[in-house]
């Protein structure tokens, strides 16, 4: 036991300095609990307020698509350059080393393949599994305007409820069907519904006309979905415009792992997202890194 007679009286109370209470850096997240904020701070870089998410969860409904035939060969070398990895529990357990220390966003909705109606999903992974796998967030597909719109929204709200209980954020992924208009009005509707019902951040597509109205009318962070493979300069331009128009980062898959030089591409995307590099400068970086490999 300490000798109470030897304890010196504390003097450095700094009574002239108000106690500092910082607000949380991420949009719409200040009232969340400490554990949830901590997980979000592992997904979003606190210095830039943005994230580069590497999405490799495509196999849960479309199998080994191009670039994802061998996760161990094609994807693991990219991990050091991503802020967070979005994937399924099967790939996480079978392929990703437990020594991996970056954040995990776990795909928890599913139930249909590309051979069926994609909007007919359910919760495929329970909250206990997300806890066991140390997930920083849980991703749920939401089909606003889809055949099973209501069911997908309820899937999301269930995960919001369960995740809030244990301090794990929910990512709402807005899915767009083939017959839906990809315009600002639709994305304002889809993202706002997800935010109003509790999603902690939202993944949605970029549009050239009015994307800034989507991000400004959504009270939680929006991460741009990369979508189908396009030329590298076009993908970097899309990412640059998205973050300059209010996105809190990008979630790219095919535009990275289907690139001619995936390692160079993910670094170029990181320069756009975290360093505000222009798409032209980032494309120069891409070509330089590609030629070095």
Features of the shown structure:
293 residues, two-stranded antiparallel ribbon, 8-stranded parallel barrel, alpha/beta, 12 helices, single chain, globular, 39% helix
Distance between the termini: 61 Å
User: Helix coverage percent of residues?
Assistant: 25-40%
Low-confidence residue ranges: none
* Run of helices and strands: HEHHEHEEEHEHEHEHEHEHHH
What is the radius of gyration computed over CA atoms, rounded to a whole number of angstroms?
21 Å
- Average pLDDT confidence is 93
The main β sheet shows up as:
8 strands, parallel, barrel
Structural class: alpha/beta
Tally of individual helices: 12
Question: What do these coordinates show?
Answer:
- The protein is of the alpha/beta class and about 290 residues long.
- It has twelve helices and ten strands.
- Helix 6 links the parallel strand 6 and strand 7.
- The protein is globular.
Could you outline the blueprint of secondary structure elements for this entry?
Blueprint: H1 34-43, E1 51-55, H2 59-62, H3 71-74, E2 84-87, H4 89-95, E3 103-107, E4 109-110, E5 122-123, H5 127-132, E6 137-142, H6 149-166, E7 170-174, H7 184-196, E8 201-205, H8 211-216, E9 222-225, H9 232-244, E10 249-252, H10 254-257, H11 262-275, H12 279-292
Parallel strand pairs: 1-2, 1-10, 2-3, 3-6, 6-7, 7-8, 8-9, 9-10
Antiparallel strand pairs: 4-5
What's this entry about, in short?
The chain has 293 residues and is an alpha/beta fold. It has 12 helices and 10 strands.
């Amino acid at each position: 036991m300490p000798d109470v007679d030897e304890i010196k009286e504390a003097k450095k109370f700094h009574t002239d300095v108000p106690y500092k209470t910082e607000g949380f850096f991420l949009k719409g997240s200040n009232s969340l609990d400490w554990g949830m904020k901590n997980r979000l701070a592992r997904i979003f870089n606190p210095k830039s307020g943005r994230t580069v998410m590497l999405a490799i969860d495509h196999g849960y409904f479309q199998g080994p698509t191009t670039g994802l035939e061998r996760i161990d060969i094609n994807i693991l070398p990219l991990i050091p350059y991503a802020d967070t990895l979005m994937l399924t529990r099967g790939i996480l357990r079978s392929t990703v080393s437990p020594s991996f220390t970056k954040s995990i966003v776990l795909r928890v909705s599913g139930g249909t393949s590309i051979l069926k109606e994609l909007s007919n999903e359910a919760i495929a992974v329970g909250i206990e599994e997300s806890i066991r796998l140390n997930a920083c967030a849980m991703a749920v597909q939401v089909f606003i305007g889809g055949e099973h719109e209501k069911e997908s929204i309820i899937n999301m709200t269930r995960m919001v409820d369960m995740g809030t209980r244990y301090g794990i954020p929910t990512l709402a992924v807005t899915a767009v069907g083939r017959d839906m208009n990809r315009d600002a009005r639709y994305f304002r509707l889809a993202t706002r519904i997800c935010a109003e019902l509790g999603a902690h951040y939202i993944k949605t597509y970029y549009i050239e006309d009015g994307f800034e109205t989507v991000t400004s009318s959504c009270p939680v962070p929006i991460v741009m979905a990369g979508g189908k493979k396009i030329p590298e300069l076009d993908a970097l331009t899309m990412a640059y415009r998205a973050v300059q128009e209010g996105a809190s980062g990008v979630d790219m898959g095919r535009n990275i792992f289907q690139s001619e030089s995936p390692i160079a591409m993910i670094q170029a995307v990181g320069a756009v997202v975290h360093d505000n590099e222009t798409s032209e400068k980032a494309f120069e970086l891409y070509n330089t890194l590609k030629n070095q490999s």
